[in-house]
Amino acid sequence: MTSDDRTSDTSGGPWYWSLLHSRVEGPDGDPNDSRLGPYATREEAERALETARERSEAWDEDPKWKRD
After folding, report:
1. What contacts 24+ positions apart, CB below 8 Å, involve 60-68?
2. Which runs of E-coded beta strand occur in the chain?
3. Which of the residue ranges 3-7, 23-27, 48-52, 64-68 would you say has the lowest mean pLDDT?
């Protein structure tokens, strides 16, 4: 399998964001501990880092998790 095979649109998902290669991959990509996902669409996977940042910021402000 070439690296291009990992990003092809033949499987229809699920999709993942590779933390090792900074790209969207299909289910046969990097190991689970090296990627974010799964995402239902390729577009959601492309936004994985932004989504993670937004969620972290929301958790930081959530009173259930905030320690003062």
Report:
1. none
2. 15-18, 23-25, 35-39
3. 3-7
In the chain, the amino acid numbered 2 is T
Q: The tokens of 4 are what?
A: 């291009």
Per-residue model confidence (pLDDT) at position 52:
96
Say what the pTM is: 0.73
Which DSSP state fits 19?
T
How far is the C-alpha of 54 from the C-alpha of 14, rounded, in Å?
Answer: 21
Residues 66 and 52: their CA atoms lie apart, in Å, by 18
Residue 36 forms beta bridges with which residues? Answer: 17
Quickly list H helices, the chain. Answer: 3-6, 42-46, 48-61
